[in-house]
Design goal:
The complex is a heterodimer of chains A (106) and B (964). Chain A has helices spanning 34-42, 96-99; strands at residues 3-6, 10-13, 18-22, 50-56, 64-70, 76-81. Chain A is mainly β and 106 residues long. Chain A has a 4-stranded antiparallel beta sheet, with no helix packed on it. Chain A has a two-stranded antiparallel ribbon with strand order 1-2. Chain B is of the alpha+beta class and 964 residues long. The chains are: A mainly beta (106), B alpha+beta (964). The interface between A and B is medium-sized, with 35 and 30 residues.
Chain lengths: 106, 964
């Protein structure tokens, strides 16, 4: 189970969230070719390593945000608000705070 | 000899023996209907051994007699059915059941009795039951014929059928350090964590902390082991922020520091525990694996016979439970650990005939000690066969030669027990699930941890398995697989009855990956997860393939590490609490008036209202006819409702619908269809314009949440600049739908300030005002094809308004309208029901909305996908009407004349026309719109008929009734 640090609420369990596929996917202009359009619809990176994706904190603040996740280790390297650019990443084995995030108290 | 069982031995003089065993009053219990006696501190297994019960179960496939093989979680053989009736649990390891007075355990396999099982004929025909036998033997005429017989014969136990009478619960916890395993290493880790002030949880699967240190006579930090354990336990008990969970096992690790635990209540005589099992979900900053190691067996012919037991288990039964596993015992080992068993058995008065050690040379000190005890040591020797029809009566020991590839000289020993040790394999399933890597090491013949993740550490025997330690350091342990004898009698997996021959067959048939061999032979796939079989299977497969074992890799230890009951996982989420159900504001009224309440997603809705003596079909026809001739009243409150507000609300909504919303005026409502970006239909509903910056979007009942999320996703992720807010208001507004030719008169006789005249309030109009003095929004929309009003009032006011409408309609023959009749009415009108008449591939043109979508100039979600070649093919499935058959049923398949396709479409909705009774239907038909007037063959579960293709709708094509 992922423990996801929502940029608005803090670290919460995965069941509170909804996965929304890759982020930073540009919606093409109406006039693009069929090939470009279907690539936007169906073509997705499937990287081994860092994956930028968006999540909805449905049972929390109700906001969408971005997550950079390592698809091999499930390490969450960064979370950032919708609309913000991709952050510079600390590289594999990043800071502890994101690795096994723990919330104190309840 | 003792009153507590003939195999109970006198307590030795060793003060370090754990106090688990208190010789108090005897505990009577039942095993397979026979009365037995144990003592406080016994497990069922130790009590059975003390009573001399050798055959405890029958094996899964061959019905071979089996006895207690181990003393812990790894037990592959001695499984029993425990408990009565609906509370019974099948396949429980007898080594984990704490004895209590009156305990009643049974073995479901074995007929006519456990000791004499005719099913054993399977054993004597075992060449038939090889790996993959069910694919090879039972192909004709079909597996389904054989499956019940084979399931009956297989020893899985009997699952209870009644509702589980026990209670379970789920708990969540956070900590800094989670330590799995309460043996010496785990205790030390907990002690250190507590000293640092870390929030610590220590988990121990048995009821007692200390593990082997509590009873094996070893010394820790200069103290006797049991005294040290007591000291640490007391320290931890006083520490703040330390939680100790005994009778709890770790079930799995799920990443990000999340580990699940299952805590069991101890059995108590005659009373159900308040909570039988507790499922813990623990989030820990650090994970310490102190799970110890599991002793592995030796592999030789008939190595599964009752009386053969792991040497460490024999030691534990002796020291903890004062039970000897036999009177004349042979010990066989490939490492040093079994010598303590031999020593202590001898000291307890058991005759130890010999120790066979597969190593050529052993430590001189051990050799000397055995010499002093007069126990003969046969070096370079391994058991090659065991004897006896039921329980063990003898063993053959062979001397290894030719680099362990053969045995020459074989000696026979007459004995009633054989203690075997094939070395120790660390329990690293959790470690692996937490991201740790394992590698086979030939010195220990075990999978050892390498490459620990940063927040995970391994301590104790899990980190460093017992190898053949000598005074000069660690040396390699000996072979564990006998090179002699029939491989189809050499058991690798006792739980699933997999032999060396099965592995050989798999390799001969071309399986090479250990993961494939595992799946084909089922080795290590039983509910013991191969705790005593995986390593031997690896070695055998590596030998057969001529590879070093390390090169073969290993199988993936997936959760759960140990069997978890469904009750523990479900916790309190059972029965009514399994899923929340939503009730309509008029729920009680519907029930009181014969409403048959059924599940529609999370909603309970009335499908039909039955009058006394009426069939369901009659009731549906009556309700539908009433709507066409008088009026029906429907509780439509489950309709999804989302309020959309803001200066950009109209521009925002226009980007979702294939319909042009920019021409919508305040006080008007418009029907619309929403698409996915791929162009397929997502949902439909109405858009109500209350004010230039205030809209109400309705969705189909099941889609309310999904559409609210859909709007939010686009607003937040794609168009954050739009000034708009979306609020789900489904629960706030009740929808009372009054429909039928008498609807206006009925509504007019209820006090309202809204002008209902057709001129003032036309079809697709919206009016706000008061009904019965209650603030209300009225929409003139229709899903039935009749004049209709959707009366929206605050949910709490719904019963009053409903009653008023109901009373006002009595003189005009009003009837309540259920969902089934509503569906019939809308089908007759050709109105879409999303998900019934459409599926995930349907685009607007398929259902007759292509022109509307094409006419809209502005962009909307999915628009660019509509002209894709796949979406404009003329042979797409298109919605048409069907008539002219004697009967039509939804789900029936259609075939066009001269078609060779498997299917040309299917009926999506069907019923009988409300007024004429003629069968009518809607269908998705390949290229159907161009075929109006043609015939199509209908295939319905073996019956064939012919129907005529017609345009839509089936009724009132001019729509004059709803515009009335």
């Amino acid at each position: 189970m992922l423990r996801i640090p929502c940029p608005h609420c803090g670290v919460r369990d995965e069941p509170e969230f909804v996965f929304g596929g890759p982020s930073h996917v540009e919606r093409p202009a109406f006039g693009v070719s069929d090939l470009e359009w279907t690539d936007y619809l169906f073509g997705r990176e499937n990287p081994k390593g860092v994956h930028f994706e968006r999540w909805l904190h449905e049972f929390g603040c109700g906001r969408w945000f971005n997550v950079a996740r390592d698809t091999v280790t499930h390490e969450i390297l960064a979370t950032y608000r919708m609309g913000e650019p991709k952050p510079a990443l600390p590289g594999p084995g990043g800071p502890d705070a994101l690795r096994f995030p723990v919330v104190r108290g309840s | 000899m003792s009153a507590h069982g003939p195999y109970r031995v006198a307590r030795g003089g060793d003060s370090s023996v754990d106090a688990a065993l208190r010789r108090g009053s005897p505990l009577p219990f039942w095993f397979n209907g026979s009365a037995c006696t144990g003592v406080e501190g016994d497990t069922l297994a130790s009590a059975l051994l003390a009573n001399g019960v050798r055959i405890v179960a029958r094996s899964f496939k061959f019905h071979r007699p089996r006895g207690v093989f181990s003393c812990g979680v790894e037990e592959p053989s001695a499984l029993v059915q425990w408990g009565e009736g609906a509370g019974a649990t099948p396949s429980v390891r007898s080594t984990l059941i704490r004895l209590c007075a009156g305990l009643d355990a049974r073995v479901p396999s074995g007929w006519p009795s456990l000791d004499f099982d005719v099913g054993r004929v399977l054993d004597f025909t075992s060449p038939l039951w090889i790996a993959g036998f069910y694919n090879k033997l039972f192909k004709w005429p079909g597996w389904s014929l054989y499956e019940p017989v084979i399931r009956h014969l297989a020893g899985f136990g009997t699952a209870p059928t009644g509702a589980d009478p026990d209670r379970y619960e789920t708990r969540h916890a956070h900590c800094d350090v989670l330590i799995i395993g309460g043996g010496a290493a785990g205790l030390r880790a907990a002690w250190e964590a507590a000293a640092r002030g870390a929030r610590t949880i220590l988990v121990e699967q048995s009821s007692q902390l200390g593990g082997r240190a509590g009873w094996d006579g070893s010394r820790i930090d200069g103290q006797p082991g049991d005294a040290w354990v007591r000291g640490v336990r007391e320290t931890l008990a006083r520490a703040r922020d330390v939680r100790i969970l005994t009778d709890t096992f770790a079930a799995g690790h799920y990443g990000h520091g999340v580990t699940t635990l299952v805590e069991s209540a101890s059995p108590r005589e005659g009373a159900r525990p308040a909570i039988r099992e507790r499922y813990w979900i623990v989030r820990a900053r650090r994970l310490v694996i102190a799970t110890g190691a599991i002793e592995q067996p030796l592999i030789f012919c008939n190595n599964d016979r009752p009386g053969i037991m792991l040497a460490g288990a024999a030691h534990a039964y002796l020291r903890r439970h004062e039970v000897a596993i036999g009177r004349r015992v042979v010990v066989a080992t490939n490492n040093d650990s079994a010598y303590a068993t031999a020593r202590d058995l001898q000291a307890a008065g058991v005759e130890v005939l010999a120790i066979a050690d597969s190593r050529r040379t052993i430590d001189a000190a051990i050799q000397g000690q055995m010499g002093k005890l007069s126990i003969p040591v046969l070096t370079g020797s391994i058991p090659v066969d065991s004897h006896g029809f039921g329980a063990l009566s003898g063993v053959s020991i062979g001397r290894l030669s030719d680099e362990d590839r053969r045995v020459d000289e074989v000696r026979q020993f007459s004995c009633d027990a054989l203690a075997v040790s094939g070395g120790w394999n660390p329990s690293l399933a959790l470690f692996s699930q937490a991201g740790g890597k394992l590698s086979y090491r030939s010195e220990s013949r075990a999978l050892e941890p390498i490459d620990s993740p940063k927040d995970v550490s391994v301590v104790g025997a899990a980190a460093q398995p017992h190898a053949g330690t000598t005074s000069s350091g660690v040396t390699a342990i000996g072979v564990r697989i006998s090179p002699a004898g029939r491989s189809d009698r050499q058991w690798v997996d006792l739980r699933h009855d997999v032999t060396v021959a099965d592995l050989e067959l798999a390799i001969r048939e071309g399986y090479s990956s250990i993961e494939h061999v595992k799946r084909y032979t089922t080795v290590g796939m039983a509910n013991d997860q191969g705790k005593t079989s995986n390593i031997a299977a690896l070695e055998i497969v590596a030998r057969l393939r001529g590879l070093p074992v390390a090169q073969l890799g290993h199988t993936t230890p997936r959760p759960p590490v140990m069997p978890v009951t469904l009750g523990a996982i479900a916790g309190r989420a059972v029965g009514d609490q399994f899923a929340p159900s939503r009730q309509l504001p008029l729920h009680e009224w519907h029930v009181a008036h014969g409403g048959v309440m059924e599940d529609f997603g999370e909603w309970k809705r009335p499908t039909v209202y039955l009058l006394p003596g009426e069939s369901r079909a009659q009731a549906i026809a009556r309700e539908a006819r009433t709507v066409r001739t008088a009026a029906g009243l429907l509780d439509g409150s489950s309709l999804g409702k989302i309020e959309v507000r803001g200066p950009d609300a109209l521009a925002f909504l226009d980007r979702f619908y294939i319909n042009n919303l920019t021409t919508l005026q305040p006080g008007r409502v418009r029907y619309g269809i929403m698409l996915r970006e791929s162009g397929t239909i997502l949902d439909d509903g109405t858009v109500v314009m209350l004010a230039p910056d205030q809209f109400l979007v309705t969705t189909t009942s099941g889609n309310a949440g999904r559409i609210a999320n859909w709007l939010q996703e686009w607003r937040q992720c794609e168009w954050p600049q739009l000034r708009v807010a979306c609020t789900p208001v489904t629960d706030q507004w009740a929808v009372l739908s009054l429909t039928g030719p008498c609807a206006r008169e009925i509504l007019a006789s209820v006090p309202t300030d809204i002008d209902l005249s057709p001129e003032a309030f036309p079809h697709l109009g919206v009016r706000e005002g008061r009904v019965l003095g209650i603030p209300a929004r009225l929409y003139r929309v229709s899903f039935t094809g009749e004049l209709g009003y959707e009366i929206n009032v605050p949910a709490r006011s719904a019963p009053a308004v409903w009653e008023a409408l109901w009373n006002a309609g009595q003189s005009r023959g009003i009837q309540p309208l259920g969902i089934d009749a509503l569906m019939l009415l809308r089908m007759e009108k050709g109105f879409l029901h999303i998900g019934t008449d459409t599926d995930g591939t349907t685009v607007p043109d398929d259902v007759g909305w292509g022109n509307v979508a094409a006419a809209k100039a502005a962009d909307f979600v999915g628009k660019r996908s509509l002209p894709l070649p796949e979406h404009v093919r003329p042979d797409r499935l298109q919605l048409v009407g069907l008539v002219g058959a004697t009967d039509l049923a939804a789900g029936a398949h259609l075939r066009l004349a001269s078609s060779h396709a498997a299917t040309d479409g299917w009926i999506t909705s069907a019923g009988r026309a409300v007024l004429s009774g003629e069968p009518i239907g809607l269908a998705l038909l390949r290229g159907g719109r161009a075929l109006t007037g043609a015939s199509v063959t209908v295939h319905d579960e073996g019956r064939t008929s012919t129907a005529r293709i017609v345009g839509l709708p089936h009724f009132d094509s001019r729509g004059s009734r709803m515009h009335a």
